[in-house]
Amino acid sequence: MSIAKQIETLEQLVAVDEQIKQLTDGISGHRGELDQVAEEVSILEGQISADQNSIAEMDKTRGELVQELRQLGDQIGRSRDRLQRARNSRETNAAEREVKELGELRRDRDHEIKKLGDLTEQARDNLAQAETRKSELEARLAGSIEGTTKTITDLEEQLTSLREQRQAAKSKLPSLLMRRYERLLERRGSAVAKTHDGTCLGCNVQLPPMLYTQMLQQTRFEECPMCHRIIYYTPKPQPGEDAVEPGAEEAGDEAASPEATS
């Protein structure tokens, strides 16, 4: 196959690979959206379960404190009775001390019960919010999963067709050239660049005059000494023609490790 035909096939391969990348990114994006919603639902389920357990535990503890508070009330009543029946200062002091200590315990329990009540109320609010958000996400997931799945299926069908086109293009190109192409594509994301006037359109670096002169003959593929892409000469597109350049990047493209020329 002549270099001109190889250039044509290589450009077809570059175009197919770009479409494959776009489709692959699109599929990943759609799947990522579903996965993100499903992950948030899973997180909310864990939060809801934790809130429910926390509320149940706080309700249990509050019940125990209320029971203890009742018992303290009974003990205070008995201590006051003993205080009234005290026959000497020792019994009076003991009864008064007991009433005071029990009173402090009752105030502590009252404070703990109030604090637990506030915490339980906050937990119930959090639980309600989490359940509402979970319901919204589940409805969103149920509504979008069918459409998104169809979109992914359509994209995968297009991807299969493009991969067949890619394989057909690969089979027409020399194996050495394809090895260089695949290696550069994996490392850089783009493997091919053009030149119309001696400037690499992949990295915008001026090519050595001797190299450019050789490229004008179109007898073989060369390598850009800066970005190391496979490079070849083609005439500059006329106005109205497709001017998209394979491998074109912003000026200042950093050089990669040298690749062996064919």
Strand content: under 5%
Structural class: mainly alpha
Q: How far is it from the N-terminal to the C-terminal residue, by CA?
A: 15 Å
Can you name the CATH architecture of the largest domain? Orthogonal Bundle
Please give the radius of gyration in angstroms. 39 Å
Structural domain tally: 2
Low-confidence stretches: 247-262
DSSP, total strands: 3
Helix content: over 70%
Q: How many H/I helical runs?
A: 4
The top-level CATH class of the largest domain is Mainly Alpha
Question: How are the strands of the largest sheet arranged?
Answer: 1-3-2
CATH fold assignment of the largest domain: Helix Hairpins
Q: Main sheet?
A: 3 strands, mixed
Query: What do the pLDDT scores average to?
Result: 86
Per the principal axes of the C-alpha atoms, what is the gross shape?
rod-shaped
Instruction: Sketch the topology as an H/E string, one letter per element.
Output: HHHEHEE
If you had to describe this structure to a student in words, what would you say it looks like?
- With 262 residues, the chain is mainly alpha-helical.
- It folds into two domains: 19-172, Helix Hairpins (Orthogonal Bundle), CATH 1.10.287; 174-262, Helix Hairpins (Orthogonal Bundle), CATH 1.10.287.
- Helices cover 72% and strands 4% of the residues.
- The chain is built from four helices and three strands; from the N terminus they run H-H-H-E-H-E-E.
- The protein has a three-stranded mixed beta sheet.
- Strand 2 (222-223) and strand 3 form a beta hairpin.
- The two termini are 15 Å apart.
- Residues 247-262 have low confidence and may be disordered.
